[in-house]
Structure formats: structure tokens, C-alpha cells
Write a structure and sequence with these properties.
Layout (H helix, E strand, L loop, with lengths): L34 E2 L5 E2 L14 H10 L4 E2 L5 H14 L16 H11 L3 E5 L5 E6 L27 E2 L4 H11 L3 E5 L5 E6 H9 L14 E4 L5 H10 L4 E5 L6 H13 L4 E7 L2 H10 L3 E4 L9 H5 L5 H4 L1
Parallel strand pairs: 3-9, 6-7, 9-10, 10-11, 11-12
Antiparallel strand pairs: 1-2, 4-5, 7-8
Helix pairs in contact: 1-2, 2-6
Length: 325
């Protein structure tokens, strides 16, 4: 039986506290607000979006990661759809796209257009059954197609002569010189057998300059997280999210200091030891310690502090946020 301290203590939230201004020699442009979400994930701005279905899907996650934060895709989605939202973020830009979207020579033009629209890309490499590059299809190739052309194979429209490619290991600066020299927008990366290994686009070069503080992984892709619950489908959901490159999983519950949450965190860490896991929500030192001991890489603190949250009002449960932290 846990002994509950009966003495009522003072609890403070952010609105209850002001900081007293003092002398400073620090100029605004000298301030560094970067921090670590986990030991492996660095944020250039300390902002993580809420895993709510009215807040975070791919569009917000992309915008936030470009500015240096990270978005958490909500879990009120079928597994496949949530994985697609994560994949949109991971494929939105990259230093080099490791697994680029490709089509086969016999792919119909309509199907290729649908793929390009789905991933918001302006072109795709065309590969044969051995994954060897045989052409590239861009909006430029499809600019004057007619309705009756939709059922024709992309091999009739793709650029296949004098393809400009590069070998593995090329730097982004070297790639930029090739873009400038040949006036192209996409640079396929191939191995010695001509098999496609990656893709660099001029769009990603431009975005690297436009968003210098973007939160990216070691491959130059924007970082993104995704929320999961504690139900029977959790392992399948996490597996699908890992498959598309999710950077961090958030075990998202209203009461994180509970047996089911602790068991879920342990299970995820055992199955995916290299995957960062954030767990919550808690509002006590005991809850925080329990989640850390279960394997959580970071802990979400806060029960009822949100501007639209009614937990404290309806259930009478919670701790003022400043005191909880």
C-alpha cells in the first residue's frame, strides 16, 4: 500500500511565475536555444508538436522540422496511413535519398503521375528488373502528354539518352557543381553495375541553404516522431513505423505511471533496442523514475496542463505544470 502524503502543498503553473529581469551582456542573435530531445536527437528549437489529430500530420511535421523542431504524428489513424504520413516527412527532402521512389519501364504514365503527386515530387528514376537505371521521367517529359497517353508505358516518354549520373560517395557540394554544369534537377547515384543507389535533387540543395537549422538525421532527412498506444496492435504499428524510418516513438497515454504503459515501453525497447522511445504522461517523480527504469529515452511530463485539457476539471487529477516539472 502506497502512503499518500495528506498535507496539501502549494502548486504553481507558468502563469503564476514571472522572471525578474537582470543585467545581461548577451545579444538576441547570440542566444542558442538548441537542446536534446533524447541522447541521439538534437533539436535546434525546443518545440515538439502535440500528437493530436487536430494538430500533427505530415504537413506540420515537415514545416516544424525545417525550422529545427520535430512533429509527432498522431495515432488516430490506421497503421498504414500513419506510416504513410511518416514516410511523407522522411521523403520530403534529403541530403541523398537512399531509397528513391522508382518506376519500371512498363509502368503506365497515369500510375507514374499518381506516384509523383502522392510524394509531391517532380520526377522518378526508371529502373529495370535488376534495379539498373534505364531512364528518368520528369515533369518536363510529360509536359505535352494527352489524355490518351495516360495508358502508355513511361518508356515512351522518359529521358534515356545521355543520362547524367554520379557514383556513391559524392558530396553535396560536388553534386551542386554537376547541377550547375549540366542544368539538370535530379542526379541519380549508381554503383559500378549501373544499379540505382540513391538520388540527389536540386530541390534538396536549395532547401539545405533555405533551412540551415532544420532537424535532420544522419542521412539528411527531416526527423519525425509518431505516437502509439498500449493496445494489442502496438507492436505491429511500431514495426510499420520503423520500416519507413521513424526517428522516435511516443507511447502516448493520459496516465503514464501505469502497468500497461511500463510493459509497453519495455516491449518496444526489447524488440527495437536502437529506437528512441518517449513515454508519458506523468506528473510525479515516481512516475518519471518508473518510465526511465522501463527503458524510456525521454519522459513526457504533464497531466492536465494543456489549454484545452479538461482532465483536472472533470477528473480532479493533475499537478500544476511548473510544480510537476
Amino acid at each position: 500500500m502506497v502512503e499518500v502524503e495528506k498535507q496539501i502543498k502549494e502548486g504553481l503553473t507558468f502563469d503564476d511565475v514571472l522572471l525578474i529581469p537582470q543585467y545581461s551582456e548577451v545579444l538576441p542573435h547570440e542566444v542558442d536555444v538548441s537542446t536534446y530531445l533524447t541522447k541521439k536527437i538534437k533539436l535546434n528549437i525546443p518545440i515538439v508538436s502535440a500528437a493530436m489529430d487536430t494538430v500533427t500530420e505530415a504537413r506540420l511535421a515537415i514545416a516544424l522540422a525545417r525550422e529545427g523542431g520535430i512533429g509527432i504524428i498522431h495515432r488516430n489513424l490506421p497503421i498504414k496511413k500513419q506510416a504513410e504520413e511518416v514516410e511523407k516527412v522522411k521523403k520530403s527532402e534529403s541530403g541523398m535519398i537512399i531509397n528513391p521512389v522508382v518506376v519500371k519501364p512498363d509502368t503506365k504514365v497515369k500510375e507514374a503521375l499518381d506516384i509523383m503527386a502522392k510524394y509531391k515530387i517532380s520526377g522518378v528514376p526508371v529502373v529495370n528488373e535488376k534495379n539498373k537505371l534505364v531512364g528518368i521521367l520528369t515533369n518536363r517529359d510529360l509536359r505535352f502528354i494527352r489524355t490518351e497517353d495516360y495508358v502508355k508505358p513511361v518508356s515512351e516518354f522518359m529521358t534515356k539518352e545521355n543520362l547524367i549520373t554520379a557514383r556513391e560517395g559524392i558530396t553535396l557540394d560536388e553534386a551542386e557543381e554537376i547541377f550547375r554544369k549540366y542544368k539538370i534537377e535530379k542526379l541519380p547515384i549508381v554503383d559500378n553495375q549501373g544499379r540505382i543507389k540513391g538520388l540527389i535533387t536540386i530541390k534538396d540543395i536549395v532547401k539545405r541553404r533555405k533551412y540551415p537549422n532544420a532537424c535532420k538525421d544522419e542521412l539528411g532527412r527531416l526527423r519525425v516522431g509518431a505516437a502509439v498506444g498500449t493496445g494489442e496492435e502496438t507492436v505491429d504499428r511500431v514495426s510499420a513505423l520503423v520500416e519507413v524510418g521513424v526517428d522516435v516513438i511516443v507511447v502516448d497515454t493520459a496516465h503514464g505511471h501505469s502497468k500497461r504503459v511500463l510493459e509497453t515501453v519495455e516491449k518496444i525497447k526489447n524488440l527495437f533496442p536502437d529506437l528512441d522511445v518517449i513515454a508519458g504522461n506523468v506528473a510525479t517523480p515516481e512516475g518519471t523514475k518508473a518510465l526511465i527504469e522501463a527503458g524510456a529515452d525521454a519522459v513526457k511530463v504533464g497531466v492536465g496542463p494543456g489549454s484545452i485539457c479538461t482532465t483536472g476539471i472533470v477528473a480532479g487529477v493533475g499537478v500544476p505544470q511548473l510544480t510537476a516539472i
